């Protein structure tokens, strides 16, 4: 019945007639044609021949049909199906099996990676921003130098490097699960309205990265006396491993409401103590006293500096990196053009807020054309950032080295043939 239904879909078949009509119609056809007028194909001599038994003709829907008719229908049924869009599609099951195998292999490889820290009480980089080293005591993060982070020398600015140091420090605290609701404060510090404030920072820059470079920043903490914490940074070129920048800093606690310094509570010490490393500072401390300037001893003064809203951090005081930009506002232009900053020591005296008005003073203490020396010699400067009402905010000392001929080109310069 299946063969008949399939054949009838392509060749119309009339309703069944009486046996006499069928016999009469069959007698009018030639002997070599079947009941539908189709000439059957002769059987091959080499093929297997099956002798049909002399049984009565089979019936389909109550009507007798001849054996030749069934043979013709079987021949049509065994012919290959016509080429359509559906039967030309690839075997998708093989494709899906290959994808499943790849994903299973990748998942197994990721599971085998030993990237988690050994401390069970510490989150393992939940934000995908870095990783812990040395049993979770050192935090490492990578940064790509963006086009908006470079200056006229085609290298990253000192503010860019300082922002990378600050970001790595905060991510270190957050990834360790110690971040409360303050700016780098632990949960116990937040309960007591305590925040961290930096009192001293020293930075040595061996080389500034260029646009497109990827830098690797490592940071760790240690104790500094009874009531302070020391934080260290090491910046490398991620491709070559070359050390680019070294920095160290000292931090103390301050009450957020009273704005007074505070001792480290034992509960807070219990939070941060397990992460302290017993090592020496990565930068040798400059024990020289930073000189205090005034308008008579300064070579240049820049007045009327006011913070913008974007200069404030979550604790409602000016971000530490902003102070560096204000200090350099009063540096002589001749030094900025011919030299680059190689060393910086900052002593933070007090904070300032959104309504503060400041002035920046710089005195060239030796070397360089601004001090009557050679442009090819190093330069040292003393700095003071203070409120115009009198109180000091930051004292600083900077050292500058001559730029190379390649680095002294402006970013806007173009080869003569291209212009």
Automatic annotation (TrEMBL):
Its EC number is 3.1.2.-. It holds the Pfam family Acyl-ACP_TE_C. InterPro entries: Acyl-ACP-thioesterase_N, Acyl-ACP_TE_C, Acyl-ACP_thioesterase_NHD, FATA/B, HotDog_dom_sf. Its main location: plastid. Residues 296-401 form the Acyl-ACP thioesterase-like C-terminal domain. Residues 31-76, 392-419 are annotated as: Disordered. Residues 137-271 form the Acyl-ACP thioesterase N-terminal hotdog domain. The keyword ATP-binding does not apply. Belongs to the acyl-ACP thioesterase family. This is Acyl-[acyl-carrier-protein] hydrolase. It comes from Lindera communis.
């Amino acid at each position: 019945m299946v063969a008949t239904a399939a054949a009838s879909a392509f060749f119309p078949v009339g309703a069944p007639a009486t046996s006499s009509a069928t016999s009469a119609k069959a007698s009018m056809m030639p002997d070599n044609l079947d009941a539908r007028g189709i000439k059957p194909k002769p059987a091959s001599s080499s093929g297997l021949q099956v002798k049909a038994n002399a049984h009565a003709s089979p019936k389909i829907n109550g009507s007798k049909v001849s054996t030749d008719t069934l043979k013709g229908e079987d021949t049509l049924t065994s012919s290959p199906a016509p080429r359509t869009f559906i039967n030309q599609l690839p075997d998708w099951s093989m494709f899906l099996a290959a994808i499943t195998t790849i994903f299973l292999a990748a998942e197994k490889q990721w599971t085998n990676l030993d990237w988690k820290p050994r401390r069970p009480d510490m989150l393992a980089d939940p934000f995908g921003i870095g990783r812990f080293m040395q049993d979770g005591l050192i935090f490492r993060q990578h940064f790509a130098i963006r086009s908006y982070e470079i200056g006229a020398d085609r290298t990253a600015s000192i503010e860019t490097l300082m922002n990378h140091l600050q970001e790595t420090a905060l991510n270190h605290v957050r990834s360790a699960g110690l971040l409360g609701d303050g700016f780098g404060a632990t949960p116990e510090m937040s309960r007591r309205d305590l925040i961290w404030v930096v009192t001293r920072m020293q930075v040595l820059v061996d080389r500034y990265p260029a646009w497109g470079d990827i830098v690797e920043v490592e940071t760790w903490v240690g104790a500094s006396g009874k009531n302070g914490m020391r934080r260290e940074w090491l910046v490398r070129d991620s491709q070559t491993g070359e050390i680019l920048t070294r920095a160290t800093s000292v931090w103390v606690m301050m009450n957020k409401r009273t704005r007074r310094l505070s001792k480290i509570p034992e509960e807070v010490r219990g939070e941060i103590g397990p992460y302290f490393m017993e090592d020496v500072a990565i930068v040798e401390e400059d024990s020289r006293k930073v000189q205090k300037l005034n308008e008579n001893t300064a070579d240049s003064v820049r007045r009327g500096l006011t913070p913008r809203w974007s200069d404030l951090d979550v604790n409602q005081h000016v971000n530490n990196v902003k102070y560096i930009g204000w200090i350099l506002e009063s540096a002589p232009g001749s030094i900025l053009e011919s030299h680059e900053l190689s060393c910086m020591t900052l002593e933070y005296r007090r904070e300032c807020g959104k309504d503060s008005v400041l002035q920046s003073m710089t005195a060239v203490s030796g070397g360089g054309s601004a001090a009557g020396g050679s442009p090819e010699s190093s330069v040292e400067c003393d700095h003071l950032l203070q409120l115009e009402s009198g109180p000091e905010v930051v004292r600083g000392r900077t050292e500058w080295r001559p730029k190379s001929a390649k680095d002294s080109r402006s970013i806007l310069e173009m080869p003569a043939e291209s212009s």
